[in-house]
Write a structure and sequence with these properties.
Blueprint: H1 3-6, E1 9-13, H2 17-29, E2 33-37, H3 40-49, E3 54-58, H4 66-74, E4 84-88, H5 94-103, E5 106-111, H6 116-126, H7 138-171, H8 176-192, H9 199-218, H10 224-242, H11 257-260
Parallel strand pairs: 1-2, 1-3, 3-4, 4-5
Helix pairs in contact: 2-6, 2-7, 3-4, 7-8, 7-10, 8-9, 9-10
Length: 267
């Protein structure tokens, strides 16, 4: 890796520590300085204080959405934003995408989950630098194995939390707080599992999250049929986690599914 690459820095705004662990490892391997924050307000403070070569923004943050963070940053007098990569497990509609590209100056939109090294490659392309000299060594592979082991441990912690929430929803189907907590856990699994080699886990979590969101949006209680579906989704995710395999459509160079539907054609 060259001296210029070593001077590059990235600010990553994501509320999932598992994402930070994977991306920090891969960006450091490519010679980048990595700064990770969990919330939009933290990101705004850092963007005012120092310059970054690039910023990666998650679509859903604890205190604001990624779109709202982009708007807030553009409203800061004198703030020149670095190239932006927008990373999200969901794309709501074409108007949001148009706003990101046309109004917010976002350079690329990447769909979660993505392999960390693929994200590094795309961000390098965004800032027009070469990171192809980054090569995994036995030492770095061992380091990532340790990071992955921690992720696996955290998955089982999340699984225990999911079991507890499902039991609570069985007793109280109208508990919207428990349903939202379930959604938050499933959302993180959706966004991070594929980055650690569990592509089908992410796929299953994405489908489950959509089902949870539909119920949250409806304001209705969780029906008995829906709860049975939740339990089956959970069992499928656990099976896929025990025997990870790539999904049938796990191509890291493929753009989000919306692109295949022609929704990017107007940009």
């Amino acid at each position: 890796m060259n001296d210029f690459t070593k001077k590059l820095s990235v600010l990553v705004v994501d509320d999932d520590n598992a994402i930070h662990s994977a991306l920090r490892f891969s960006f450091n391997e490519a010679g980048w300085d990595y700064v990770g924050v969990l919330a939009g307000t933290e990101a705004l403070s850092l963007l005012r204080e120092r310059a970054f070569s690039a910023v990666i923004i998650d679509g859903i943050l604890p205190d604001m959405t990624g779109v709202e963070l982009c708007r807030a940053a553009r409203a800061v007098p004198g703030l020149v934003m670095p190239p932006i990569a927008f990373l999200s497990a969901f794309f709501k509609d074409t108007s949001t995408l148009r706003e990101l590209f046309v109004d917010m100056g976002v350079g690329i939109v990447l769909h979660k989950p993505r392999q960390p090294r693929e994200i590094v490659r795309r961000v390098c392309e965004l800032v027009k630098t070469d990171c192809s000299s980054s090569v995994l060594t036995p030492e770095s592979m061992a380091e990532f194995a340790e990071i992955r082991a921690l992720y696996i441990e955290s998955f089982f912690e999340n699984a225990r939390a999911i079991e507890s929430l499902l039991e609570g929803l069985e007793s109280n189907p109208g508990d919207s707080i428990s349903l939202l907590s379930l959604r938050n856990i499933v959302h993180k699994i959706n966004g991070s599992a594929g980055s650690y080699g569990f592509a089908r886990v992410s796929l299953g979590a994405a489908r489950w999250e959509r089902e949870i969101l539909d119920i949250l949006d409806s304001g209705l209680a969780v029906s008995a049929d829906a709860l049975r579906g939740f339990c089956q989704r959970f069992e499928n995710i656990k099976v896929d986690f025990q025997s990870p395999r790539h999904s049938d459509n796990d191509d890291p160079d493929e753009e989000p599914r919306l692109m295949s539907q022609g929704l990017f054609a107007s940009f």
